[in-house]
């Protein structure tokens, strides 16, 4: 979409809670990014965060996600969780956004909402010694399909130019991601 000048990767950004300049609770994302202009300064919160866990449990990753939304005072818009399970040869991806609390229609209270879950599993017939273990077609992506990252959440504006729109990470790209991780 030719937006490389409008996006700043923030890497494994370390941040502190809202209004906390001298210590206190903080966190470090595994990867993050945000739009330029708007979120390019060191003190700015990213709009997209990735929390990945091999030894961390999915529950621990979800606690991290809740912290990011809460501490940023709704400035973080998407948190992607990636849970790696080497024993069962699968990866669970969860996309979290904030949505209005269902018990309070019309209220401005936002709560974390798991908007998409994708499970990527190695074909049960493929072993660790199989030459196809690093072939992307040896991995099955759950029926929820491609990963969608909403443009307005990432760039804090509606798509304006021709070709701008949600970022779609295809099933083939998810399979390639999985192969690269297991390698």
UniProtKB/TrEMBL annotation:
It comes from the Eukaryota. Residues 14-38 are annotated as: Disordered. This is Uncharacterized protein. It comes from Lasiosphaeria miniovina.
């Amino acid at each position: 979409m030719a937006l490389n000048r409008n996006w700043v990767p923030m890497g494994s950004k370390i941040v502190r809670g809202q209004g906390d300049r001298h210590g206190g609770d903080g966190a470090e994302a595994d990867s993050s990014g945000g739009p330029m202009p708007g979120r390019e300064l060191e003190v700015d919160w990213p709009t997209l965060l990735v929390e990945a866990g091999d030894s961390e449990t999915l529950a621990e990753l979800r606690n991290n996600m809740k912290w990011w939304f809460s501490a940023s005072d709704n400035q973080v818009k998407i948190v992607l969780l990636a849970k790696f399970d080497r024993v069962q040869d699968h990866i669970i991806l969860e996309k979290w956004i904030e949505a209005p609390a269902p018990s309070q229609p019309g209220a401005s209270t936002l709560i974390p909402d798991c908007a998409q879950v994708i499970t990527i599993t190695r074909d049960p017939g493929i072993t660790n010694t199989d030459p196809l273990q690093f072939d992307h077609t040896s991995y099955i992506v759950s029926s929820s399909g491609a990963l969608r990252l909403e443009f307005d959440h990432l760039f804090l504006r509606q798509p304006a130019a021709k070709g701008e729109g949600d970022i779609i990470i295809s099933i083939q790209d998810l399979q390639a991601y999985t192969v690269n991780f297991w390698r």
